[in-house]
């Protein structure tokens, strides 16, 4: 079984939304809900990954997965964003406290490698959408000291920093204006603090703004190839090439609606299609610049995977399609750890 270091999951959001005092114990003992908990991570060979803190707007209509063009998500004010962010960061801290031998928050590539070598799951604190961060970026200092090592400035809604890409199919990712002046200041500060910058929910103009400004490798933690699935959330060939040239990474998103050429969210998606995206992205970015970005707990995924215990089904299809041991290892874990190391120490 090839260990997986994964670019994106929304487990903290699922646990937070339980609004339960037992959420941390539920994770440790395994609640069998959603896509992941500690026992299922173990059984699927999940070695670690980026754990997203994502603050939803409670007034957004429930996501209708059958609609490839849902209404644009509402903006989120700073105050509820900060409350939710602190709560989810606290959950991550408590998960590590509750199971210190099994689950660790990692702040460097050395800590990731040491955690995995000792058999613990290596968790990196990531934020998806920077609504909780004030324009003076003071909260960023505090979050960084708390372990934050990766940040997506914008989710799929506008905020003070820029304009996220709304979910549209079929659509180009070129859906509106790019970063604001405050957004550019955030990128510079992330470069100074060596916080990875995630481009997955930025629109195309925002992507190229970061490409021009940032000194770090370009990272799209959970996105796919627009040439195969024409979702606004996927990346053009030119963007995928730029990620490779920067020494960055694109993580394969397992979400049906970002994989399937028909844009549907049906979960009878052929796992061979996932390998088609991988092949396409490897051809453009290079085999050192593609990884996995499951979007576990954040999207409807192929039934052939089902949940985190289904990761070996994906690697089996990769093997059947000619991915050798070394390439599989790069795609499943090593490329992510290397790009984080370059980002955090450059
Ligand atoms: Zn996302």
Can you describe this structure in just a few lines?
The chain has 346 residues and is an alpha/beta fold.
Element string (H = helix, E = strand): EHHHEHEHEHEEEHEHEHEHHEHH
Question: What is the CATH topology?
Answer: TIM Barrel
| Rg over alpha carbons | 18 Å
Please give the largest β-sheet: 6 strands, parallel
* Helicity, as a percent range: 40-55%
Folded structure, characterized:
This protein has 346 residues and is an alpha/beta fold. The chain has a single domain, classed as Metal-dependent hydrolases (TIM Barrel), CATH 3.20.20. It is 41% helix and 13% strand. The chain contains 13 helices and 11 strands. The strands form 3 sheets. Strands 1, 2, 3, 4, 5 and 8 form a 6-stranded parallel sheet that branches. Helix 9 links the parallel strand 9 and strand 10. The longest helix has 21 residues. It binds zinc ion.
Task: State the main characteristics.
six-stranded parallel beta sheet; 13 helices; alpha/beta; TIM Barrel; globular; 346 residues; single chain; three-stranded parallel beta sheet; binds zinc ion
């Amino acid at each position: 079984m090839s260990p997986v270091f994964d670019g994106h999951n929304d487990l903290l959001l699922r646990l937070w939304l339980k609004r339960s005092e037992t959420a941390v114990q539920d994770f440790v003992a395994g609640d069998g809900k959603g896509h992941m908990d500690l026992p299922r991570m173990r059984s699927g060979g999940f070695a670690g990954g980026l754990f997203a803190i994502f603050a939803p707007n409670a007034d957004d209509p429930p996501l209708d997965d059958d609609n490839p063009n849902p209404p644009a998500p509402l903006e989120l004010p700073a105050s509820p964003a900060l409350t939710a962010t602190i709560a989810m960061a606290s959950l991550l801290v408590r998960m590590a406290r509750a199971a210190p031998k099994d689950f660790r928050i990692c702040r460097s590539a050395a800590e990731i490698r040491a955690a995995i070598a000792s058999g613990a799951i290596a968790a990196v604190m990531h934020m998806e959408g920077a609504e909780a961060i004030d324009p003076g970026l003071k909260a960023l200092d505090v979050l960084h000291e708390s372990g934050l090592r990766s940040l997506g400035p914008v989710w799929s809604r506008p905020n003070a920093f820029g304009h996220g890409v709304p979910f549209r199919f079929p659509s180009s990712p070129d859906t509106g204006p790019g970063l604001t002046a405050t957004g550019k200041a955030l990128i510079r500060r992330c470069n100074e603090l060596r916080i990875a910058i995630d481009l997955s929910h930025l629109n195309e103009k925002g992507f190229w703004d970061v490409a021009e400004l940032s000194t770090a490798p370009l990272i799209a933690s959970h996105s796919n190839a627009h040439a195969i699935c024409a979702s606004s959330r996927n990346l053009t060939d030119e963007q995928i090439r730029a990620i490779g040239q920067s020494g960055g990474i694109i993580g394969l998103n397992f979400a049906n609606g970002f994989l399937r050429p028909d844009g549907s969210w049906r979960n009878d998606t052929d796992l061979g299609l996932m390998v088609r995206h991988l092949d396409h992205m490897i051809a453009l970015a290079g085999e050192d610049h593609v990884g996995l970005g499951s979007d576990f707990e954040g999207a409807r995924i192929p039934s052939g995977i089902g949940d985190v215990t289904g990761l070996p089904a994906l690697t089996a299809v990769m093997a059947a399609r000619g991915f050798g041991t070394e390439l599989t290892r790069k795609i499943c874990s090593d490329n992510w750890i290397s790009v984080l190391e370059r980002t955090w120490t450059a």
